[in-house]
Structure formats: C-alpha cells, structure tokens
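Dear U.,

For the methods section draft, I wanted the exact inputs and outputs in one place so we can describe them consistently. I've listed the two proteins in the order they'll appear in the manuscript figures. Please don't edit the token lines directly; just add comments below if something needs changing.

First protein:
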Amino acid sequence: MRTVINPKSLQNEIVALSVVVHQDFPLERPVKAVSSSHLVALTRPNDVIWPFDIQKNSVEPSSPPSPKWTPREPF
C-alpha cells in the first residue's frame, strides 16, 4: 500500500494498493507456486488530476501485473 499526504487537507490518502492471492496455501510444507493471482489498484487524491501520459508510462498490458483504475479515473 502506498499513501501520500494531501497538501490541502493534510491527511494521508491511499494512492496505490498491491495484492497477491494464493488459492492453496499449505501450512505443513513450502508453497510450490510463487503466486496464484495478483492485482494492482491505482487512485489519486481528490483535488489532483491524472498526468496526461499515465497510460503510456504505466505497466505494459502484456506484462503482469496490469494496472486497475479506480472510479475517479479520467479514461
């Protein structure tokens, strides 16, 4: 999880969240698979706009993890 301080409200706001999910996680032996599924979510503070080239500079769609945009996204 990544947070930033909103300069106007002086409160912490979550701007990125990354999750890795293991479907079968044995407690008695080591995990065989590195991960089963993953998700990266991005957002922005309420009073900040997205950079115009954010999609061009974000992770390529073919390489995991692919970014998931929150409802405040401009696209």
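Second protein (the one for the lower panel):
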Amino acid sequence: MTALPIVETQSGDVSIYIPTNVIISIKTFSD
C-alpha cells in the first residue's frame, strides 16, 4: 500500500499523499 502513495507523490500530488497516508495509518491503528 505504501508504494502507491509514493508514486502519486512523485507525480506531484503531495497534498493528496499526506492526508491519504494519515487516513491509512488511522485505519491501520484502529484495526
């Protein structure tokens, strides 16, 4: 799952990558 956000970050979608990464982390800790 980490590889996909990294690819998006390289495309310049840093603003999308950061909140997405946080949401994934929250869901992971919730589980």
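Candidate sentences for the figure legend, describing the second protein: The mean pLDDT is 66. The chain has two helices and no strands.

Thanks,
Y.
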